[in-house]
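Example complex used in Figure S2.
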Amino acid sequence: MSVLDMSQMELRELNSTLQAAAKDRKNEAFDITNPRGSHAVAVGLDGPLSVTIKGSTGYYCAGMNKEATVTVEGSTGPGVAENMMSGMVTIEGDASQYAGATGRGGLLNIKGNASSRCGISMKGIDIVVHGNIGHMSAFMAQRGNLVVLGDAGDALGDSLYEARLFVRGKVKSLGADCVEKEMRPEHIAFLKDILEKTGADAKPEEFKRYGSSRKLYNFNIDHADEY
Amino acid sequence: MCGIVGLFLKKDDLRPKLGDMLTDMLITMTERGPDSAGIAIYGDESDGVKITVQSDTPDVDFAGLEDDLSKAAGVGVSVKVVSTHAVIKAPMEAEAALLAAVEAKGLRVMGVGESMEIYKEIGLPKDVAARFGIREMGGSHGIGHTRMATESAVTTQGAHPFSTADDQCLVHNGSLSNHNSMRRKLAKKGVFTKTENDTEVGAAYISSRIAEGASLGEALEGTLKDLDGFFTFVTGTKNGFGVVRDPIACKPAIMAETEDYVAFASEYRAFADLPGIEAARVWEPEPATVYFWER
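Predicted assembly (522 residues):
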């Protein structure tokens, strides 16, 4: 276990140390101390590495993650795990706006709440939020799964493509083209697996599934006069 | 971008440290706004009125100011010069005469009130704070701003906080899209702004609503209906501290509360040095929701 102390080390040096260790592929483990809300901590990791951040971070923590496991023992600012490719990012506290935005793979596990635009334009990532999510979450989401144990804010899944949204609590309102869909056995099986993997205290049967009604996929000729 | 900070103390024992804490919070937000910085601090109440004025040529304008103003107002006036700013203290009844006198001398009025003083200038937050000795100032609450100019010029007048009524001030992160039409509407009611700045319109809107009898909470609710654009507003009054974000809420905001204080900032970084922050309740204010504390 190596300890990198951010009160003694510049951000650029910290990230290049982590990125080099990720490339070495020796499955090293690092503790990051004194993050104090810093931006862009542990970004661009491209290899199997275990990083634990002892405190809260600012913008874009663990962005572009590939294969690495990053745990934040605190809360994160906007854009955590943005464009993640694979690996796992766990937030013990809350996540700010657009958590997991444009994520292409991997698992983002948020144990607190996530605020607005969680999973915006997600493209294959799985996101589990143990608390609530804010408004405009999964806007234009294309692929992957967003699982929410708490409530969802306004306009969930606005202009949604093929991502699957599972919400256990109340949904304040659904966005354009987002509808409730039936829960089939494969959805129950998926939820059972991911809830177990993330240590989430919920049963698959308690969730409702939402998805695209696919009405925005094609131009509706009846609307031609409106243009 | 812009960076906002605010600190409202619930207990008196932290009062001497208010300026120090706010300065550290403000400096942390430098990257969000290096154009100008400003701070409004609610310090000890004077027996009368305090008028904070600014001059680009303080050596000339502030020389003999105390005597000139005493003569103009016909009462004893004290003047404390702090760099480009001066705080004029006088009995309450002299307020109107003094305001006319300072404006006749071409001084810019930053703020007026029983407890509020406003200091703002172009430059980096650390330089602005040092110039005015903000660290040494005590008080009950204060708000600060680091500006990245978008809607109007980088000038002292364009720096935040904006004050449009006694002991009221406002800082803003965002940009209002209907500020010109709102400015005209307010002017029809006799409420005039001094700059082309969109934020001043937000401040004037709130002040005019309060003058019409609304509570600060109601006035902040009104911004959601009547102001268009992106905004996170943090406001101060003599006894209160309020926060509101627009319904889209794309401008960042975070709050922290302990038994000792309520703090607001654009980013968590600004909280890192606050006492007891590890155990504080930390949350993001909801969109289109008014938060308000009063003592």
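The two ends of chain A are 61 Å apart (CA to CA). The interface with chain B takes residues 36-38, 56, 58-59, 75, 77-78, 94, 96-97, 115-116, 134-135 of chain A (CB under 8 Å).
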